[in-house]
Amino acid sequence: MQNSLPLVIADGPLAPAILELLDGRVELLPWELTATGSERPIDGIYSYGHLTVDGPVLDRLPGVKVVSNYGVGVDHIHLADAAARGVPVGNTPGVLDGATADMGFTLLLAGARRLAEGDRYSRSDGFTHYDPGYMLGQEAHGAVIGIFGMGRIGQQVARRALAFDMQVVYHNRRRREDLEASLPARYLSKEELLATADYVMLCTPLTAETTGYIGAAELALMKPTALLVNIARGAVVDTDALTNALAERQIFGAALDVTDPEPLPRGHRLLELDNVTIAPHLGSATVQTRQRMAEMSVANLLAGLSGQPLPHQVQS
Ligand code: 8YV
């Protein structure tokens, strides 16, 4: 009976909610088979934790009918390679926008008000008395937020910023005049945005164009009082350039949900700095959002396994 189930390779251990949805519907096999190939023909790949799926992987597993990704970002999946082999790729757009924007704002406020640093200080032996002169931060309300990437998540960030009485400026591959009046938001060139914003928030997908998008030259354009927030992908920022800019106090600080590499090697210089707040990639990590992601990614997987169109197929 077990042998009649479709065979799916996944990079587990998968969350219980996903296992529950897959129970009795597929047989799960370990990710190591993507490196060795498998004697049993594999029907699908379930990508959970951002491991690479490329042409060589698909060639070792020629029976694969679908790649389903738990998450919206698919930079770890070579879409052109999948398309060339006729393998549809599914993802989970829309359901994680609110949670990810909430995280962006959490980081913005935490970085601006030095929350992680304050937490460390509060717990330390050094905190012996309250001093109104210490740990002054930057204000969020009334400030200018510059959003790179005015897609679904960027728009959700903008709405939160407006509720904080911030002015929203943005830069996007395609100017979004439709949103400029409705949000409102003002379009600026990349350079203008960097020089204008008090908070620079990265919400772009990782592509060839956005890899290393924020490097030494871009950081040099930012205000000395500005905070960089990254809820996109670590590689959108040049890690060495950011580390140098923070160490030299060229900008006020950074608040990162993602890093390159991820995790940073223990002992990395960035981890020694007090003007950076780092979260371990928690953008969509809420109980409710992760449940929706589980349902959507399993629906994509099961559709692909049965040769049906995926409810949410990534366009390559
Ligand atoms: C997920 C993400 O945590 O959706 C994305 O692109 O980066 C995150 O929300 C991730 O995909 C799960 O591994």
UniProtKB/TrEMBL annotation:
One of its GO terms (molecular function) is glyoxylate reductase (NADPH) activity. Residues 106-283 form the D-isomer specific 2-hydroxyacid dehydrogenase NAD-binding domain. This is Glyoxylate/hydroxypyruvate reductase B. It is an enzyme of class 1 (oxidoreductase). It comes from the Bacteria. InterPro entries: D-isomer_2-hydroxyacid_DH, D-isomer_2_OHA_DH_cat_dom, D-isomer_DH_CS, D-isomer_DH_CS1, D-isomer_DH_NAD-bd, NAD(P)-bd_dom_sf. Its EC number is 1.1.1.79. Residues 42-314 form the D-isomer specific 2-hydroxyacid dehydrogenase catalytic domain. It comes from Lignipirellula cremea. One of its GO terms (cellular component) is cytosol. Keywords: Oxidoreductase, Pyruvate. Belongs to the D-isomer specific 2-hydroxyacid dehydrogenase family.
